[in-house]
Design a protein that fits this description.
Blueprint: H1 6-10, E1 13-21, E2 24-25, H2 28-42, H3 49-53, E3 63-71, E4 88-95, H4 100-105, E5 107-116, H5 131-137, E6 145-152, E7 157-160, E8 164-169, E9 172-176, H6 186-195, E10 198-200, E11 212-217, E12 221-229, E13 235-238, H7 243-256, H8 262-273
Parallel strand pairs: 5-6, 5-12, 9-10
Antiparallel strand pairs: 1-2, 1-3, 3-4, 6-7, 8-9, 8-11, 11-12, 12-13
């Protein structure tokens, strides 16, 4: 990556992280649609679909994570855009192993002190400027805490540092609206389309009255939450995992090709050993 690349210098670009299984990408069309939205909004030329569509097949055998990084390229003086941008696409595929214990045992999460800035023109995009997420993730080192939850600067729930957030309240599935900030995940998009999950504006206290809470993304799958802490590590709520948690998890994992229940995971392990 050249020193003067605008993605390196200013975060002027986009990225996608895609789960690939034996050369076949999951939720590929959703990833490409989000990349296209980002290119349109930032004014970056979208790479050809033929070039992009060839990448999952080059990722290698087994379970892999394919990361695509698209920058505006080099040039321009300071923040001024180059007169003739030449976008730069880079990609890498790495082996991946999910965390099945988090699928079945659930996770502990906490609120973060950092508040996300509101910028509707960037809302939903997976752009390269992720400094807020880096700072939020630096707030804890406890390995028992899997994720941190983020609100915007006006106190509305948005997401976790690298996952989307879902909960069930009064029998309804809900997720934070992302019109002001946050990343619109491809797994989130698939679940919303499939199940009609309602987007809402909500304060963080809504989670303490929820019947179930989950975190999810298109690489890790869906993690049920068994404990919620405040930013100081004090417990605010806890949940006993049950069938309601598994129902949404099964829907999510069907989209990603992951086990939908613990028995299915055990069966696959036995098949792998055979």
């Amino acid at each position: 990556m050249p020193f003067d690349d605008r993605g390196l210098a200013y975060g002027d670009g986009l990225f996608e992280t895609v789960l690939v299984r034996d050369g076949v990408a999951t939720l590929w069309e959703a990833h490409m649609a989000r990349l296209a939205r980002g290119c349109e909004r930032l004014g970056i030329a979208m790479p050809s679909r033929s070039a992009l569509d060839a990448l999952p097949g080059r990722a290698g055998a087994g379970l892999r994570v394919l990361k695509l990084t698209l920058t505006r390229g080099s040039g321009g003086r300071g923040y001024r855009l180059p007169d003739s941008p030449a976008p730069r696409l880079r990609w890498r595929a790495t082996p991946f192993a999910p965390s099945p214990e988090r699928w079945w045992q659930g996770v502990r999460v906490r609120h973060c002190r950092l508040a996300l800035g509101i910028q509707p023109r960037l809302a939903g995009l997976k752009h390269l400027n992720r400094l807020e997420n880096v700072m939020a993730r630096a707030e804890w080192q406890d390995p028992d805490v899997a994720e941190g939850l983020l609100c915007d600067s006006e106190g509305r729930l948005v997401e976790a540092t690298s996952m989307n957030l879902f909960w069930r309240r009064d029998g309804r599935l809900e997720t934070p609206g992302l019109a002001r900030c946050g990343v619109a995940g491809t797994l989130r998009d698939g679940l919303c389309r499939r199940l009609g999950i309602q987007e809402v504006d909500a304060a963080p206290e809504v989670l303490e009255d929820a019947e179930a809470v989950w975190l999810g993304n298109a690489v890790q799958g869906l993690w049920p939450v068994h404990r919620l802490d405040d930013a100081r590590g004090r417990m605010l709520a806890c949940w006993r995992l049950g069938s309601v948690h598994r129902e949404l998890q099964a829907e999510a994992h069907a989209l990603l090709g992951y086990p939908r229940h613990a028995g299915e995971a055990g069966q696959r392990d036995e098949e792998d050993e055979a």
